[in-house]
Amino acid sequence: MIEEQLGRWVAASYPGAIGVANSLRLSGGASQETWSFDIVHPGGNIGAILRRAPQGYGAAPARAAGLNAEANLMQLAHDAGVPSPRVLHVLQPQDDLGTGFIMERVEGETIPRKILRDEQFAQARPKLARQLGGVLAGIHGLALSQLPELRRMTAAKEIAELERDYRSFDWPRPVFELALRWLRDRDPGSSEQVTLVHGDFRHGNLIVGPEGLRAVLDWELAHTGDPMEDLGWICVNSWRFGEIDKPVGGFGSREELFAGYQAAGRRVDPARVTFWEVMGTLRWGVMCCGMMQRFRIGPEHSVERAMIGRRASETEIDLLRLLAPRK
């Protein structure tokens, strides 16, 4: 069925194309469907990815920018030289494929365990943190006037949303209470700079090759706000996958990340980065609790949700290390 629908789009969009082949639904992505396929053409096949809202899926999550905005942001980033897949098409009603977009497929690896352990990425690992700093500088440098309509987020709004979600579980956790108080007491106020914020810049959303970063994926949580949020999020311990002494994704240091960011002409505020690292750690903890809550109340008792849910306790340890570091 999906190949037939994609085939009709290909026939209308690519003169001479024979059709599509090798369609495969990819794993991952809780709120969107992702399909990989090849556009078969005598001049050479084109690898493509379909990203769309699942059939029958309800309203998008409140934090989501929306698939049309996501496609717009990815194309803006690509055109500005940020490593992002090129958008081939934004779905229209006549395509009969739902809501979403089609982009070029970028080959590479997204699985953290492989990026952090496999020999083929040994040359990439030492330079990734600095690369990511430069890429974030490029994202934050995109002109606000060119962006689609996005949510404007501040630290105060983020704290309020996290506290609302946490209290809705009716599952008291003293460390979360401590973190919320710490964040409220140290809210740095509005940033001097308001930029595009990717919102989920971390392992799983980065395609890596032997030479380094190839593409940034999943712009679903993009918004405008404090650019230091992205730098803090990539440093959250949950994205280090055991390499806890390498704060940036388990492969680099904060200093390397900051150096790449500053070399691209942007300024780092380390204190604000730390604030957002605490915020990000609490956010992931609250998200883990949400997964466990959905597992407990059903109707789908997904083992994956339970496994993620148990990681809330890990974020409590991470928060204590951040808020009360040992001397």
Walk me through the structure:
The protein has 327 residues and is of the alpha+beta class. The chain has two domains: 2-104, Phosphorylase Kinase, domain 1 (2-Layer Sandwich), CATH 3.30.200.20; 112-323, Aminoglycoside phosphotransferase (APH), C-terminal lobe (Aminoglycoside 3'-phosphotransferase, Chain: A, domain 2, Alpha-Beta Complex). 42% of the residues lie in helices and 14% in strands. The chain has helices at residues 2-13, 67-79, 112-117, 125-140, 155-168, 174-185, 228-234, 254-263, 270-297, 303-309, 312-323, and strands spanning 19-25, 33-40, 46-52, 87-90, 100-104, 195-197, 206-209, 212-216, 223-225. Strand 2 (33-40) and strand 3 (46-52) form a beta hairpin. It starts with a helix and ends with a helix. The mean pLDDT is 92. GO terms for molecular function: kinase activity. Pfam families: APH.
Question: Could you name the key traits of this structure?
Answer:
327 residues, alpha+beta, Phosphorylase Kinase, domain 1, Aminoglycoside 3'-phosphotransferase, Chain: A, domain 2, 5-stranded antiparallel beta sheet, two-stranded antiparallel sheet, 11 helices, 14% strand, globular
List the helices and strands and how they pair.
Elements lengths: L1 H12 L5 E7 L7 E8 L5 E7 L14 H13 L7 E4 L9 E5 L7 H6 L7 H16 L14 H14 L5 H12 L9 E3 L8 E4 L2 E5 L6 E3 L2 H7 L19 H10 L6 H28 L5 H7 L2 H12 L4
Antiparallel strand pairs: 1-2, 2-3, 3-5, 4-5, 6-9, 7-8
